[in-house]
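User: Teach me something about this protein's shape.
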Amino acid sequence: MFAKTDWICQAVYENHGIRPARVQASIDHDVYNYKHEDQALKPTLAAMVRPQTPRRAAQRTIRVLQELSAIFSAQIDGYIFGATDEMLAKAGLAAPASFTNLGLLKRSGVADVLRKSTLFLDLSDYQAFGRTALEAMASGCVPIVPKLGGTDEFAIHGKNAFVVDTRDETDILDAARTFLEMSDANRTTMKMEALSTAQRYSVLGAAISELQLFRSLAQR
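Assistant: First, the predicted structure itself:
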């Protein structure tokens, strides 16, 4: 067995008494990459809202986005994705004012949204790794991520991301407001740190780490 974060390895061990080997995680930089000309002129938020997956906390995400929309009004734009309007309505949800629902997206569509955005909100209960947040970083978009789980593999609070207790909506809102009220220069500094972090997670690096694991097993 192998897994891609220490958190997953520990969770498997605690629940099943088996400790997986650790290998490197990766993202596809051919899909998720930064293009300066794609980024919006004013702060733009993006969030996955997927009511069909309970741990993704769709209701919480919509509440937070509604609050941010009310506070910042015309100062921000935003996108949500992960469910159609009909799917949201069935769950009693709707896109907040100033947010456009892009519905169900393929990988290339998600990458396009992240490149256009400056702040990505992952308000899940937990993330075993948080790949979409890292893909956001590779696209030049600073993420807000849950502190529970494996996001500490790449997210450093206040440097390249905001790590929050997603059970506390005040904590989430404080992080979002901190970013949105930053100077352009400080937001750019965080973005550059995010880009630098994401470059460490390549498909080739992950493949090599798995090959090394298989070779070590074969040599036993």
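Now, about its shape. Residues 1-26+203-220 form one domain. The two ends are 16 Å apart (CA to CA). If you'd like, I can walk through any region in more detail.
User: That's plenty for now, thanks!
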